[in-house]
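Final report, results section. Input specification for complex C-07:
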Amino acid sequence: MNVVPMKSPRPDAPVTEIQPAHSPPSRRRAPHVASARQPTRMDRLIKILAPPVMGLLVFILLWAWLANHTPQLPGPLQTWRAAVEVFSHPFYDHGPNDQGIGWNILRSLERVGMGFGLAALIGIPLGFMIGRFTFLNNMLAPIISILRPVSPLAWLPIGLLVFKEAQPAAIWVIFISSIWPMIINTAAGVTKVPQDYLNVARVLNLSEFAVFTKILFPAVLPYTLTGIRLSIGVAWLVIVAAEMLTGGVGLGFWVWDEWNNLNVEHIIIAIFVVGIIGLLLEQMLLMIAKRFSY
Amino acid sequence: MDQKFIQIEDVNKVFESKQGAFTALTGIHLTIRAGEFVSLIGHSGCGKSTLLNLVAGLIPPSSGALLCAGREIAGPGPERAVVFQNHSLLPWLTCLGNVHIAVQRVFGRTESAAQLKQRATAALEMVGLSAAQHKYPHEISGGMKQRVGIARALSMQPKALLLDEPFGALDALTRAHLQDELLKIVAATGATVLMVTHDVDEAVLLSDRIAMMTNDGRLGEILQVDLPRPRDRLALAEHPRYVSLRGEVLKFLYQRHAQRAA
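Structure output:
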């Protein structure tokens, strides 16, 4: 309704009148508004980007300075050139001991995925049961307290002993070191479900299945997601060490192999790759967690 | 039977805690007729919510018996719907979802999905929330949340409606509005209502009887509210009987059983 009377004078009005009356103020206004808005956007962008960029610059400068004084340590430029080369053929395959970075990353992710997946499959339901049944909690609390602080690699010999093979042993290490945060966070989440919600469940006389799907699961989900995030962090942390010891294709083995070749550039590349993938995993899970917070 | 729809007979409730036993209720006798509206009023800590929770079946009595329609109350049941003070809606379900979960439980075995949905939408319509049915609890106001809580309770077609300070967390205007709506709904459905409140006007306006509780967890007096229905808050404000009833409750609460200094 409002649009019509505002528009109608424009076509009705003589062209000569429009041009001087309309365009100069609109021209004046438009740049003014733009100049007032765009810098603020730029300002904000600079404010957000400047500190991390400066941090990275300082880091690279320190690294370059350190590399200058240590002949064996490659500098940033040298590493960059090596990285370009490594990443230009990510999926080459020259036998089991010489494969592209892409394969190494995928195999490491695969191991983490399997170990972590198994841990989630067992840890999350177990956490629910521990949280729901006090008896089970009291039963398992001492075992969890003893096993949780154990260094992940201490589990490797047991894995090798039981599975007699390197591959499942590495997965076993990932499994056992990433299961605890999921058990503990899920259990804590279950005990923290507001009594109000449980009262609603009782008053509505919901079945145990409905209590689980309609109340417990959604209420605990944010806690479980935190557990998953911590777990995947641990799993990714452990994979390099586990692969160094067990061998096979993977980032950890690659690091060890390049150490034996004294190819330090590649070790540094591996460190960055591990760090960046860890960051991406974390961010991905944070995004999922945000979706499920109430 | 109808004269004794809810029977509370010589009920005592003692809570065991680390500091020792705490007696919340002593020797409560109260009988509520079918279709009657009874308010429990008293200072905070007098045990009125405890009594409501006993009738709801959320907690068991230490001694004595509670009956609903001649049967002992052994636990919560859909024939006694509760409206909680803090609405207690599930934040991950929409308004409709929150009502539907109750409908599903009570009528899910006997009715089709379309009928269930029809019941849920009808309950929301009764409290005037049809437009907000697909919103989540965090998207609506406190008064609307409380209405959803009432709709959820009504949707179960309970024989008794138990209200635990249902309007306590709301501002005065919203509260008055919802009280008027509750009056209409109760008149339309003929539900038996037990309501906990600390609002004297609310108790007099809504109730057939007001059970006034002392600070040591006893039933002090029961006041008959013999005001004609339907009641209108504006007309009642000047009504001499309303004023005198209101005065009696106030006298009980602030003269004879004033709260000890905290």
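Residues 1-31 of chain A have pLDDT under 50 and may be disordered. Chain A touches chain B at residues 196-197, 199-200, 202-207, 210, 214-215, 218-219, 294 (CB under 8 Å). This concludes the modelling results for the funded period.
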